[in-house]
Structure formats: structure tokens, C-alpha cells
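Researcher: Let's do a round of design. I'm pasting the C-alpha cells now; please hold your answer until I've finished.
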């Protein structure tokens, strides 16, 4: 059985001199113009919007003590931007805390060996539930926690820079 014939999806131009019927306005033209204007308006409003303001948290009173687990982050983060905007440097004594304002200085003591270091908060984290602080590789070496990775620490807030 032969396949049924289908109409062609294209058409040829009418013969020269043939009369065309009255030209009907295209209704979809108004829709497309409206859609284009809406897209331009949305794009313009997105470009004109301002950045959300940062919420600042109050610096805990100097002398505030926090006890918990700390971890460290090292070489694979070298040169990447921290949450404060500065580049991470494994050689600096810095730390990441979830809520402490950037620039807060903390004295961190390793509870297992008694070693102490003063760090400056410049990043956000740690993002593991049971940890209270992430320290840089240099701070981890000073604290003697590079081998273990996670250590119980005591943190004392010294104040803002």
C-alpha cells in the first residue's frame, strides 16, 4: 500500500500579476512586541538592582570562651578568594568561623598538647556540623594538628582588629 500523500509544508510565490486577497494584520505581532518589552524591562531591573547589604554580627565580648573541634584547610585552597574577599594564603595565621565578624582575633589553644596561636577570622566555615573553627595550614602547624586533621580546641575571643 503506498504511503498517503501529505501536503507540502512550503508554498510558492503567486504568479506575477495575480491578485492577492486583502492583507490581514498579524495578531501575534503585538504579543511578540509585548514579550520583547517585558524581557528588556526584566533585564534592566536586574542590572539596576543593588547588592544585598551584609548583616554584621556583633563581636563577642573579649574573653568569651568556646570549646569544640577545629579542622584545617591547606594547599588546595591556596590563592582562592575567601568570604572576606582576600586571597587565602597557607602561610598566614587565619581562620574561618560561621558567625564571627571578619577581622576578629582569636587565641586558639590545642587541648591535647597545650600549643597556642592567635588567628584572624577572614573566612566563613567550617561547614561540618560538629566543628567550630577551620584554621589555615600555618596555624595548624603551630598548633601541632596537621597530622590528625581534627583536634579539640579552646578558643578565646581577643577582639576586633
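Researcher: That's everything. Go ahead.
Model: Designed sequence:
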Amino acid at each position: 500500500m503506498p504511503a498517503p500523500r501529505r501536503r507540502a509544508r512550503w508554498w510558492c510565490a503567486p504568479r506575477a500579476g495575480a491578485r492577492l486577497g486583502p492583507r490581514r494584520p498579524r495578531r501575534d505581532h503585538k504579543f511578540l512586541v509585548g514579550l520583547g518589552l517585558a524581557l528588556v524591562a526584566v533585564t534592566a531591573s536586574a542590572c539596576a538592582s543593588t547588592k544585598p547589604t551584609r548583616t554584621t554580627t556583633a563581636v563577642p565580648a573579649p574573653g568569651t570562651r568556646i570549646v569544640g573541634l577545629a579542622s584545617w584547610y591547606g594547599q588546595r585552597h591556596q590563592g582562592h578568594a575567601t568570604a572576606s574577599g582576600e586571597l587565602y594564603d597557607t602561610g598566614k595565621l587565619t581562620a574561618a568561623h560561621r558567625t564571627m565578624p571578619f577581622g576578629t582575633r582569636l587565641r586558639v589553644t590545642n587541648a591535647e598538647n597545650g600549643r597556642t596561636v592567635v588567628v584572624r577570622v577572614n573566612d566563613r566555615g567550617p561547614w561540618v556540623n560538629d566543628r567550630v573553627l577551620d584554621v589555615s595550614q600555618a596555624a595548624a602547624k603551630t598548633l601541632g594538628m596537621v597530622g590528625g586533621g581534627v583536634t579539640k580546641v579552646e578558643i578565646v575571643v581577643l577582639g576586633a582588629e
